[in-house]
From TrEMBL:
<keyword id="KW-0809">Transit peptide</keyword>
<dbReference type="GO" id="GO:0004368">
    <property type="term" value="F:glycerol-3-phosphate dehydrogenase (quinone) activity"/>
</dbReference>
<dbReference type="InterPro" id="IPR036188">
    <property type="entry name" value="FAD/NAD-bd_sf"/>
</dbReference>
<keyword id="KW-0560">Oxidoreductase</keyword>
<feature type="domain" description="Alpha-glycerophosphate oxidase C-terminal">
    <location>
        <begin position="453"/>
        <end position="588"/>
    </location>
</feature>
<dbReference type="Pfam" id="PF16901">
    <property type="entry name" value="DAO_C"/>
</dbReference>
<dbReference type="InterPro" id="IPR038299">
    <property type="entry name" value="DAO_C_sf"/>
</dbReference>
<dbReference type="InterPro" id="IPR000447">
    <property type="entry name" value="G3P_DH_FAD-dep"/>
</dbReference>
<keyword id="KW-0496">Mitochondrion</keyword>
<dbReference type="InterPro" id="IPR006076">
    <property type="entry name" value="FAD-dep_OxRdtase"/>
</dbReference>
<dbReference type="Pfam" id="PF01266">
    <property type="entry name" value="DAO"/>
</dbReference>
<comment type="pathway">
    <text>Polyol metabolism; glycerol degradation via glycerol kinase pathway; glycerone phosphate from sn-glycerol 3-phosphate (anaerobic route): step 1/1.</text>
</comment>
<dbReference type="GO" id="GO:0006072">
    <property type="term" value="P:glycerol-3-phosphate metabolic process"/>
</dbReference>
<comment type="similarity">
    <text>Belongs to the FAD-dependent glycerol-3-phosphate dehydrogenase family.</text>
</comment>
<dbReference type="GO" id="GO:0005739">
    <property type="term" value="C:mitochondrion"/>
</dbReference>
<dbReference type="InterPro" id="IPR031656">
    <property type="entry name" value="DAO_C"/>
</dbReference>
<feature type="domain" description="FAD dependent oxidoreductase">
    <location>
        <begin position="63"/>
        <end position="431"/>
    </location>
</feature>
Amino acid sequence: MRRIIFEASAALVAVKLCLNEGNLFAKDRSEVKQNILSRDKIVPSRKQQEEKMSGSNSKNPFDVLVIGGGATGSGVALDAASRGLRVGLVEREDFSSGTSSRSTKLLHGGVRYLEKAFFNLDYGQLKLVFHALEERNRVIQNAPHICRALPTMTPCYSWFEVVYYWAGLKVYDLVAGSGTLRLSRYYPAQKAVSVFPTLAKECNGRKLRGAVVYCDGQMDDSRLNIGLACTAALAGAAVLNHVEVVSLLKDEISGRVIGARVRDNLTEKEFDVYAKVIINAAGPFCDFLRKMADSSAANIISPSSGAHLVLPDYFTPEDMGLLIPKTKDGRLVFVLPWRGKTLAGTTDSSTTITDLPQPQSEEIDFILHAIEDYLNIKVRNSDILSTWSGIRPLAIDPSAKDTASISRDHLVHVDCPGLITVSGGKWTTYRSMAEDAVNAAIKHGELNPLRRCATADLAIVGAEGWKPSAFVELAQSYVRRKQTRDGKVVPGALGTSIAKHLSCAYGSMATQVASIAQEEDLGKRLAHDYPYLEAEVAYCARNEYCETAIDFVARRTRLAFLDVNAATHALPRVIEILAIEHGWDKGRQKVEHQAAEVFLRTFKPGVTDLVPQKQGK
């Protein structure tokens, strides 16, 4: 009897401890959110971040220094800062300037991985799908203004394909469980064509038998990345773009990596940054950084490229994508509506690592021919508005016996004392990659976080208080005042298209952009037929660490990716506004224009090898 009473008491104490711990965790999480998500809170200035970064020393180091400002690096900075650690982050170019702005814009579990899991009886692949689907929903939940659910159609030109794809995508629904965005469904041929009018009724002599529609997530990758970096800054991290690692600092006695010598590429100023642990999140350039610490380190990155091109909007419906499952070489091709245009792309081509990867002409031809087989309208080279390529850093575990096996999962590896590398994975799983990397840093560096990981349901800046109908309030409450060529200021309606764009790009912070357009006479469009406003240039310079013209046309807005000619047209006005915001002289404006023109030429179809490539991170 005593034993029963004792065990019951012990169980009660355990329950109370769990409840108390849960309450403390909820309180910690609430404090983090309150600190980050005040709408009026402004990110620290670049000068303040530089002072914070250069103020570290061997006796007062950061807990963590993150190298690389892509999705993973920015996610690591946010995770570590939200746990109460002292965090610095440096990025050689701009946040999301590499792979993280050049994705297919999908948040997905991986239909291909699920297929391989069943055919190869590979439980590891199945775990990847389970995990990615869970993370997909977290990303959408934490950034609902930037992400959306996107139905995607898989056309079937035989009854076998109908059964095969229907069954496979029903399993995809089953794996997603309660996290299913929308259940997959079969459309007869007539309905499929009515929903997707450009879909071919016949392909390679076979008649359309219907289509299976499933649902995954879609996002604006660089806007999400910028949001992560700014949220990390609001959480207390010192984040600096355009700051390059020159060398790693080591303790002379132990050989432990204790920091980095960095150079601000905007001012050419160099200084040392000290940290207890360095996290290498340099994406495709991870190996260059690893070799700074150990010149004999074996490469762990196996680069894989994805080529993409942008077409006018009439190739796809506004809310339905197309998955082409069978191509000549077995790769998938996606044809997706994105930001008012059509995005077509494929992945998994072998490549070399360069700063500005460009799709080769044969890759563009491959995509065009694949699309033409499944559409009832001709796709011409002259339809292409922009092209780009991204490098996915697939990782090989250096501790694995079989180094020929390339993992689709992410890798967290202690390279040497003081240096941890995180690589592999994909955009969808950036948050869990960051969590694993910070956990490894805490263990390796014996760090003392104030809180546990809180990023599973931590909204990024702009997400708190946002709702899908927020654009209506913008359209009703603001006008955009713009200057005419003769210097007069005239008011104009914000309009639905502009209001929707601002709401989806900036979330609850869109009111600040609209206010600038109204109060500072910066309401003019930057390019005809596009919703981007002059006010966005000023807002991004003040609140999103937009330091160059390229930062704006490529990553704060997506104009370079959507229409390279429109971006070129907008460039002079973008530079003019940035010059006012940053105090540039005529010389700096000229340099900005030249650099941006060279950069934009890499987005023109059929133009390759225009930019001399430098390597390293």
